[in-house]
Design goal:
This protein has about 425 residues and is an alpha/beta fold. The protein has helices at about 35-45, 60-70, 85-90, 110-115, 170-180, 185-195, 210-225, 235-250, 255-275, 280-290, 295-300, 310-335, 340-365, 370, 380-395, 400-425, and strands at about 5-10, 30, 30-35, 50-55, 70-75, 100-105, 105-110, 120-125, 140-145, 145-150, 160-165, 200, 205-210.
Length: about 425
Amino acid sequence: MDMAVILCAGLARRMQGFPEHLPKQLIRVAGREILYRTIKLLKERGIENFIFVVNESNREPIEEFVKKLGISYTLVLNREPERENGYSLYLAKNYVKGRFVLTMGDHLYSEDFVERALEGEGLIVDELALYTDREEATKVLCREGRVEDIGKGIEEFNGYDTGFFILDESIFETAERLVGEKERITLSEIVKSAKLRCTFVSGEFWTDVDTPEDVERARRELIRASVKGVGDGFVSRHLNRKFSLWLSEKLIEKITPNQATWFTFLVGVFSSIVALLSPALGGILYQLSSMMDGIDGEIARASMRTTKFGGYLDSVLDRYVDFLFLSALALWLKPTTAFLPWVLLALFGTLMVSYTTERFRGAYCEDAYRVIKSLRFLLGKRDERVFLIMLFCLFGWLKALFVFLALLTNLRVILTLYLVWRERGRS
């Protein structure tokens, strides 16, 4: 299967002219055009040929947009978009061969949704619809693996229409018959008449955009769905992520992921400078930089701008911030020769905590937290360390801080080595 039909011929009356002179499919949500998101996700999974069914008003801007993407495409003009989306599908019949993907030009999908949906057949149905307006969503009743009923107003249903289909040419027999019988024909009518198979893909992110309010909601949900979460410590889950998600929502249309990385880094460096004068105030700023640390990844994933270099840069700059801040505290403390080993052990252990998990990725090409689930429960992840450092700074317990960090971080490194050996070292 290497072909996709994307329906873009709707008149978008509910958008109320927002934004002006721009087709709904080209509206940017969380930094990327709706249509770009669908094309990119499908192209990365082997779809090479795209058929866009458009109307007379959006044909030119959509063609200009897809030309820049360098994809193989065909534009099919629907001169009568008021005949509904079932008629738009019917118009694509002479351009499709074999199995193909059918989806809507105003729907948003996550990578995980598309991955699972492409393994299915017929209509992709979601039992949960966690990220869309369930009242507005089209309901589906599936029995014995096929669509029995579909529509927004049906009372008995067991799922929601995601607007994503895996079809073959036989669907056009039903479409042609219904188009011959009725002036207006919806996709739901074709689906019901054809008794399409149902494939349940539940709990993944998808939504559609029909109104200006949907744009705002979709932006927020895309950012929230961008959280990795696997390596988050206790403080990240309960404090840092709440702040970073709020900040990412404000900044995603304004800055790039790398700019977010450098911005967070500079806040961390500034906290180190302040700590030379006031450890307490520096600790607060250091915690602020930790709370901001997730925005680059959230923006990158939500706006489909993830790069290996971006993750690499973030990891390297985090190590610099940690080293600079603890060095600033050490300079403020002026440790004696007898106490200096505790300072050095704290500095070394802090760097080694991150090194051991990153080195696992380099050695095994896997995320240590995904592979070794018990690692998630070890105290001492960066978010937890930074928060504890702030508390020690606020109380002025700097000597106790270095002793605590020296013991905590190096013990965590030893336990990490043991867990990795138990998982991989015996084989």
